[in-house]
Amino acid sequence: MNLFLLIFFIIIGIAGLYFKVETGVFVGLGLIPWQVIRMKKSKKMNLLVIIITGIAGSIFFALIREWVLLGLFIFIEFYNYWGHTRTKTEA
């Protein structure tokens, strides 16, 4: 189920970026790291996904000048990082 949701959120995030839909970017890019964290594969992969989605979402919200959504998105990424630090992985 985690893999299905990961693919689903990737599609939502990419579609949100392509069609310039704030909700898609916020939900998609905000939840991708959480699904990767739940798969418990690698700490490096968790951190890499958090950084990539954080940069992509931050640039998107800064370009469209949605400062409130940018602040909330950064908060969500810090929450993802907190989840990353609290999760034990297999490797």
Which secondary structure elements does this structure contain, and how are they paired or packed?
Layout lengths: L1 H18 L2 H18 L3 H21 L3 H20 L5
Helix pairs in contact: 1-2, 2-3, 2-4, 3-4
Fold and architecture overview:
The chain has 91 residues and is mostly helical. It contains four helices and no strands. It has helices spanning 2-19, 22-39, 43-63, 67-86. The longest helix has 21 residues, at 43-63. The protein is globular and about 40 Å long. The model has no long low-confidence stretch (mean pLDDT 95).
Order of helix and strand elements from N to C terminus: HHHH
Radius of gyration: 13 Å
Mean pLDDT: 95
Task: Tell me the major beta sheet.
Answer: none
Assign a percent range to the helix content.
Answer: over 70%
Low-confidence stretches: none
Q: Proportion of β residues?
A: under 5%
Give the helix tally: 4
Briefly note the structural class of the backbone.
Answer: mainly alpha
Q: What shape does the CA trace take?
A: globular
Query: Could you give the count of β-strands?
Result: 0
How would you briefly describe this protein structure?
85% of the residues lie in helices and 0% in strands.
Tags for this entry?
single chain, 91 residues, 85% helix
